[in-house]
Design brief:
The complex is a heterodimer. By secondary structure, chain A is mostly beta strands. Helices cover 0% and strands 49% of the residues of chain A. Classes of the chains: A mainly beta, B mainly beta.
Chain lengths: 114, 112
């Protein structure tokens, strides 16, 4: 629902393992974003992409990687270099022409290190 | 870059009372200010927004005010109801890049 789908809803990662979080949108939005949400810290930007085949680091990009091969898809890989990956991850998208319409958020993925 | 501060971090009100959440921002280029409501375990939802050419906007029980000179904006909820209980986030954005900078959130509890 909502035009932007994140999967899985829950994900468990073992120490030293890479995991990939999926984000797909059918809103024809140019821009896509990944945020990390921790209790009491609000939303922190990991990576964002304004156009296919281009992406930029956000405030906390270390230990994460992304790709944007298709307009509809913006997967996030949490690598073993991310030492504290347990968090709630939110994907969002927006139109590129100005900031007139706000973000549409996905329903999130809760990642837990086991 | 932009820095958005939000207060208070928690807020409890009696049902029927008003709630006010305040945010400040640092970048004078910011010109779009949305507010999001996030219920427990769910995605943030846009509830109201305001642009820099407007001082106030109202939608039923929700209103937002903006003071560009002082670089602060506020969310006002009147006649609060238990279903208003959630975490509220403010954000600021300039046209360039569409990147939003979020406040740290306010957990609102409406006591029946």
């Amino acid at each position: 629902d909502g035009g932007i789908t994140q999967s899985p809803k829950y994900l468990f990662r073992k120490e030293g393992q890479n995991v990939t979080l999926s984000c797909e949108q059918n809103l024809n939005h140019d821009a896509m974003y990944w945020y990390r949400q921790d209790p009491g810290q609000g939303l922190r930007l990991i990576y964002y992409s304004q156009i296919v085949n281009d992406f930029q680091k956000g405030d906390i990009a270390e230990g994460y990687s992304v790709s944007r091969e298709k307009k509809e898809s913006f997967p996030l890989t949490v690598t073993s270099a991310q030492k504290n990956p347990t968090a709630f991850y939110l994907c969002a998208s927006s139109t590129r022409q100005g900031s007139s319409y706000g973000y549409t958020f996905g329903s999130g993925t809760r990642l837990t290190v086991v | 870059g932009e820095n958005v501060e939000q207060h208070p971090s928690t807020l409890s009100v009696q049902e029927g009372d008003s709630a006010v959440i305040k945010c400040t921002y640092s970048d004078s280029a910011s010109n779009y200010f949305p507010w999001y409501k996030q219920e427990l375990g769910k995605r943030p939802q846009l509830i109201i927004d305001i642009r820099s050419n407007v001082g106030e906007k109202k939608d039923q029980r929700i209103a937002v005010t903006l003071n560009k000179t002082a670089k602060h904006f506020s969310l006002h909820i009147t006649e609060t109801q238990p279903e208003d209980s959630a975490v509220y986030f403010c954000a600021a954005s300039a046209n360039t890049g569409n990147q939003f900078y979020f406040g740290t959130g306010t957990s609102l509890t409406v006591i029946p």
